[in-house]
Amino acid sequence: MVYNKETAIAISEYLLQVKAVKLSVEKPFTWASGIKSPIYCDNRKTLSFPKIRTFIRQQFVDIISEKYSSADIIAGVATGAIAHGVLVAEGLGLPFIYVRPSEKKHGLENKIEGHYESGQSVVVIEDLVSTGNSSLNVVETLRKAGCDVKGMAAIFSYNLEKAQANFKKAKCRLFTLTDYDELIKQAVESNYALEKDLQSLIKWRENPEKWK
After folding, report:
1. What is the pTM of this model?
2. 3-state secondary structure string, the chain?
3. R_g over Cα of the chain
4. pLDDT digit of tens for each residue in the chain (212 aa)?
């Protein structure tokens, strides 16, 4: 769920402004899951722009203060959300940990990095949500470690039905700063995306696995 309309518009404009969004209908990108996509969103780019990363941090702080006020720890999803998670934790004066997709193959072989205790409440920071599988893997890891996961906040979501179903099944709340619908709307209005590609972009979101 998008946190609020004004934030969604602003974040979409920022992502387009710094060219964090790549659109390619004719030569789609391939996700790790094998899904072909006409869009690629690289939210790491926002970290290079102080005004934008500060705005993102403050929106996350507002979400957590309003929706997850009892959080003890902020957790970032490695690697894309580590930096944003640190900024949010600093803004809230809370401890920070981050979660790897799998255990390290050397050293302490940790999957969760940082100090935490069983029973503590956690809010997870993510940079983007596609199918939700990797994001919810982090939630499951934290729960298995005894943490009380209050929910997740992400910069961007593709709003795929599969992701919505996955989060519902996992009983994990998700708030995002913006989403696919708002981003595409802003992209067309600003001529970042061509009007002729709009229907294809809409069709992809309806059924990514069978698109093209």
Report:
1. 0.94
2. CECCHHHHHHHHHHHHHCCCEEECCCCCEECCCCCEECEEECHHHHHHCHHHHHHHHHHHHHHHHHHCCCCCEEEEECCCCHHHHHHHHHHHCCCEEEECCCCCCCCCCCCEECCCCCCCEEEEEEEEECCCHHHHHHHHHHHHCCCEEEEEEEEEECCCHHHHHHHHHHCCCEEEEEEHHHHHHHHHHCCCCCHHHHHHHHHHHHCHHHCC
3. 17
4. 899 999 999 999 999 999 999 999 889 999 877 889 999 999 999 999 999 999 999 999 999 999 998 899 999 999 999 999 999 999 999 999 999 987 665 555 689 999 999 999 999 999 999 999 999 999 999 999 999 999 999 999 999 999 999 999 999 999 999 999 999 999 999 999 888 888 899 999 988 988 86
**45, 130, 35: which is closest to 80 by C-alpha?**
45
- CA–CA dist 89, 71 (Å, integer): 10
| CATH code matching the domain that covers 5-210, chosen among 3.40.47.40, 3.40.50.261, 1.10.560.10, 3.40.50.2020 | 3.40.50.2020
Q: How far is CA 95 from CA 35, 61, 87, 172, in A?
A: 36, 14, 11, 21
